[in-house]
From TrEMBL:
<keyword id="KW-0624">Polysaccharide degradation</keyword>
<dbReference type="GO" id="GO:0030600">
    <property type="term" value="F:feruloyl esterase activity"/>
</dbReference>
<dbReference type="GO" id="GO:0045493">
    <property type="term" value="P:xylan catabolic process"/>
</dbReference>
<keyword id="KW-0858">Xylan degradation</keyword>
<dbReference type="InterPro" id="IPR010126">
    <property type="entry name" value="Esterase_phb"/>
</dbReference>
<protein>
    <submittedName>
        <fullName>Hydrolase</fullName>
    </submittedName>
</protein>
<dbReference type="InterPro" id="IPR029058">
    <property type="entry name" value="AB_hydrolase_fold"/>
</dbReference>
<keyword id="KW-0119">Carbohydrate metabolism</keyword>
<keyword id="KW-0732">Signal</keyword>
<dbReference type="InterPro" id="IPR043595">
    <property type="entry name" value="FaeB/C/D"/>
</dbReference>
<keyword id="KW-0964">Secreted</keyword>
<dbReference type="GO" id="GO:0005576">
    <property type="term" value="C:extracellular region"/>
</dbReference>
<keyword id="KW-0378">Hydrolase</keyword>
<dbReference type="Pfam" id="PF10503">
    <property type="entry name" value="Esterase_PHB"/>
</dbReference>
């Protein structure tokens, strides 16, 4: 996809993969699930390893895998990797990508969702802030939720499901204080979720709603426009995508959350 240098870090194009469900019908509109790779990952590895394409065939949605840009170490990243934007306009990339997907396929524009792991989880939080009028709900996994330079001012409440391991040493569950790292402080997961509950106007919670083995669930409810905040904590979980939440595959749990919400 052609792109301006500010969108492509000096390059002139950005790319993404699209998986069209097996029973795609151009006469019917289909939801879209955007899946962001983590730092050092790729669109291809995410498509192959997350199970969302197989789920798309089963649940009849279009799966989209955007490709990040290379950092100084030649690893793929998103600009949400830290508290800086690296002079990359990810918002413009996302808008252009969504415009093209909507043109190329029959898309239900009221049901576009985003998920991702690690740096890709951070991007899920980023689009919730920056593209709330186009993204119906988000589900970051082990995301790095650095404060955005421009702040987070969504134009509507955004339903959010977050999944995180308690023993994550890459993106610590309890955050990284400014005392420890003044340049790259990271909020604790529960603080970040509390901020989203406030943005969404939730008046109840957090309350326990789920417990199964090593997984416990919290939720904030009674939110504006039913924009519930949910969180699964994986006790002892590290920096990875859990295979299961309770008795269901993680990608199925995410999709079950998504399909409850639309713009």
């Amino acid at each position: 996809m052609p792109a301006q240098p500010a969108v492509a870090r000096g390059q002139n194009y950005r790319t993404y993969l699209v998986h069209v469900p097996a029973l795609y019908d151009p006469k019917k509109s289909f939801p879209v699930v955007i899946v962001f790779h983590g730092h050092g990952g790729s669109a291809e590895s995410t498509e192959q390893g997350t199970g969302f394409s197989q789920l798309a065939d089963k649940e009849h949605f279009i799966a989209v895998y955007p490709q990040g840009l290379r950092d100084d170490n030649q690893l793929f990243m998103w600009a949400s990797i830290g508290p800086f934007d690296y002079n990359i306009d990810e918002t413009a990339f996302m808008n252009t990508m969504l415009d093209k997907i909507t043109k190329d396929f029959c898309v239900d524009t009221q049901r576009v969702y985003a998920t991702g792991f690690s740096n890709g989880g951070g991007m899920s939080g980023f689009v919730a802030c920056q593209l709330s009028t186009r993204i119906a709900a988000v589900a970051p996994i082990a995301g790095n939720y650095y404060p955005l330079q421009a702040g987070c001012y969504p134009k509507r409440p955004v339903p959010l499901l977050e999944i995180h391991g308690s023993n994550d040493s890459t993106v610590p569950y309890n955050g990284i204080s400014a005392t420890v790292n003044p340049q790259w402080p990271l909020p604790p997961v529960l603080d970040w979720l509390h901020d989203w509950a406030q943005r969404n106007g939730c008046t109840k919670g957090p309350e326990n709603f789920f417990h199964d083995g090593e997984t416990s669930g919290l939720r904030w409810t009674n939110c504006r426009q039913d924009a519930t905040i949910m969180h699964y904590r994986i006790e002892g979980g590290e920096h990875s995508i859990p295979a299961m939440i309770g008795n269901q595959p993680t990608q199925q749990v995410i999709w079950n959350f998504f399909k409850l919400h639309s713009l």
